[in-house]
Design brief:
This protein has helices at about 15-30, 55-70, 80-85, 90-95, 110, 160-165, 170-185, 215-220, 240-250, 265-270, 280-290, 310-325, 350-375, and strands at about 5-10, 30-35, 45-50, 75-80, 100, 120, 140-145, 145-150, 165-170, 190, 230, 255-260, 295-305, 325-330, 380-385, 390-395, 400-405, 415-425, 430. The protein is an alpha/beta fold. Bound molecules: S-adenosyl-L-homocysteine and FE3-S4 cluster.
C-alpha cells in the first residue's frame, strides 16, 4: 500500500505551486499518494504563509491538533514562509514537528523527510534552475514560476526575508514547461512571481541573454495550443508603456490585471517605499483602460499603515471611486518582524483601523453591485475548468469573471460562448449560446 500525504496550503499562488512541487517529488521519489484526511496520513505538511500575523498564530494551534489526532508514527513537516522566518523556533515550540523546510528550499523535500529535526531555511538557496518533478492539480491550467524571491523592500512586507533576493528563471526552462503542460491538455498558463514585470533583472547565470517580461510574454504566446496567459503579481511601478501595449494587443494575454495599490496616498506610498505616486497609479489605469476597455482590474489595499491620517485614507477612497476595481483584497496593516515598518512608532488606533477597513469594504460592495448589474445578457467566452455543485460546471471569462452553467465533465477544458442570465456577488450564472 502506498504511503499517504496530507498537505495544507495557505497563502498565495506561489505557495500552491510550491505544494505541487513537493507533491511531485514525494510521489516520484517516495511513492506517496495524496489524501484529504490528515488522520490517515503518514506525512502531514503545512505550507505556511507569514504575510500577516494571524496565520502564524493559527499555525501553532493547528499543529497541536494535527499532533493529537495524527496516525501513530506519522510525521509532520512545516514548510513555506513561516518556516523560513521562524526556522528552528518551530521545533522548539512544537517539538513533535519532524522537519522545517523554507519557501526557497522546497526542492529538498525528499531529503529532509529522512533527517529528523532537519531545518532547511536558507533564503539564498538558488532553486531557479532546479528541474522539479511534474505534478499539476488541474489538467486544464498550469501554474508556472517565472522568478523566485523579491528585490523590492516594501517597508511592510516580510516576503523578501522569507523568499530572498529575486532571481529570474531562464526563459527556455519556462517555455519548455509551458510546452509540456500544453501537450498534456492545459490551454491556460498562470505565470507566477512576487514581482513578475521585473522579470529579467537578474538570472542565476550572468551569461543569460537580456529578456524582460514583455519579451517573455511575446515568446510564450508563440506556443501553439496555448490559448490564455495570466500572471500575478505585477507591480504598478514597472508598468511601462511597452508592457501595457503588449498586454492590450496580444490576444493570448487575458484581459485582467492585478494592480496592487496598497494605498492611494502618495505620502503613505512613499513611507511604504512602493516607488510610485497616486498620480502614477491613476495614469497607468487610464492608459490601460484607454488601450483595453474590457480589462478588469483587481487590487490589494492595506488600511491603517503607520501614520495614515484621515486625509491619507480619503486618498485611498478617492482612488477606489475613480478606478472602480473589479476585485479588492483588503487588509488591516499587520506589523511583521524584520521589516522596516515594524519600527514605525505612529501606529493607527485599532478602532480607527477597523472602521476604515469596514468603510472601504462596504464601498467596494456597493461599487461591485452596481458593476455586476451591468453583466446581465452579456456574452463571454468561458474556459471551463471546475465541476461545481448541483450539476453546474464553472470557468472563467478572459477578464477573469467566474461563470457557471448547467453541464457536466465534457465541458471541462472547453471554450464556450455563454450568455449571462443571473448575477451573484462572486459568481455569474449563464447559458451556453455557442
Ligand atoms: N508581491 C506580492 C505581495 C505579496 S503579499 C504581490 O504583489 O501580490 C500580498 C499582499 O498582502 C500585499 O499586496 C499586501 O497588500 C498584503 N500585505 C503584505 N504585507 C502586509 C502587512 N504587513 N500587513 C497587511 N497586509 C500586508
Ligand atoms: Fe512584498 Fe513589495 Fe515584494 S509587497 S513581495 S516586497 S513587491
Amino acid at each position: 500500500m502506498s504511503k499517504k500525504l496530507f498537505i495544507e496550503t495557505l497563502g498565495c499562488a506561489m505557495n500552491s505551486r510550491d505544494s505541487e512541487h513537493m507533491i511531485a517529488a514525494l510521489k516520484e521519489k517516495e511513492g506517496y499518494e495524496t489524501t484529504d484526511d490528515f488522520k490517515s496520513a503518514d506525512l502531514i505538511l503545512i505550507n505556511t504563509c507569514s504575510v500577516r500575523e494571524k496565520p502564524v498564530a493559527k499555525l501553532f494551534s493547528e499543529l497541536g491538533v494535527f499532533n493529537k489526532k495524527k496516525k501513530e508514527g506519522a510525521k509532520i513537516g512545516v514548510c513555506g514562509c513561516t518556516a523560513s522566518h521562524l526556522g528552528e523556533e518551530i521545533i522548539k515550540r512544537a517539538p513533535y514537528v519532524s522537519f522545517v523546510l523554507g519557501a526557497r528550499n522546497v526542492s529538498k523535500i525528499a531529503e529532509v523527510l529522512h533527517r529528523d529535526k532537519a531545518v532547511e531555511v536558507d533564503i539564498n538557496y538558488d532553486e531557479s534552475e532546479f528541474a522539479f518533478d511534474d505534478f499539476r492539480t488541474s489538467p486544464y491550467k498550469a501554474y508556472i514560476n517565472i522568478s523566485i524571491g523579491c528585490d523590492k523592500q516594501c517597508t511592510f512586507c516580510i516576503v523578501p526575508k522569507t523568499r530572498g533576493d529575486e532571481i529570474s528563471i531562464p526563459d527556455d526552462l519556462i517555455i519548455n514547461e509551458a510546452r509540456k503542460a500544453v501537450e498534456r491538455g492545459a490551454k491556460e498558463m498562470f505565470l507566477l512571481g512576487q514581482n513578475v514585470n521585473n522579470y529579467g533583472r537578474r538570472f542565476s547565470s550572468s551569461e543569460h541573454e537580456k529578456v524582460n517580461f514583455t519579451e517573455l510574454l511575446r515568446r510564450l504566446s508563440k506556443i501553439e495550443g496555448l490559448e490564455r496567459i495570466r500572471f500575478t503579481s505585477p507591480h504598478p511601478f514597472h508598468m511601462d508603456d511597452e508592457f501595457i501595449e503588449e498586454f492590450a494587443n496580444n490576444p493570448k494575454i487575458c484581459k485582467s490585471m492585478h494592480m496592487p495599490l496598497q494605498s492611494g496616498s502618495t505620502k503613505v506610498l512613499r513611507e511604504m517605499k512602493r516607488g510610485y505616486s497616486k498620480e502614477w497609479f491613476l495614469n497607468r489605469v487610464e492608459k490601460l483602460r484607454a488601450m483595453c476597455p474590457q480589462v478588469s482590474i483587481s487590487t490589494d489595499i492595506i488600511v491603517a499603515f503607520p501614520g495614515e491620517s484621515d486625509a491619507d485614507f480619503e486618498d485611498t477612497i478617492d482612488v477606489m471611486k475613480q478606478v472602480r476595481f473589479d476585485q479588492i483584497f483588503s487588509f488591516k496593516y499587520s506589523p511583521r518582524p524584520e521589516t522596516e515598518a515594524e519600527h514605525f512608532t505612529n501606529a493607527v488606533e485599532p478602532e480607527t483601523a477597523s472602521e476604515r477597513l469596514s468603510y472601504l469594504q462596504a464601498l467596494n460592495t456597493a461599487i461591485l453591485d452596481e458593476k455586476n448589474a451591468q453583466q446581465l445578457d452579456k456574452i463571454y467566452t468561458v474556459y471551463f475548468e471546475d465541476l461545481h455543485t448541483n450539476g453546474y460546471v464553472a470557468g472563467r471569462t478572459d477578464n477573469n469573471f467566474v461563470v457557471k452553467v448547467k453541464g457536466s465533465e465534457e465541458l471541462l477544458g472547453e471554450f464556450k460562448d455563454v450568455k449571462i442570465t443571473a448575477i451573484g456577488r462572486t459568481i455569474l450564472t449563464g447559458e451556453i449560446v455557442a
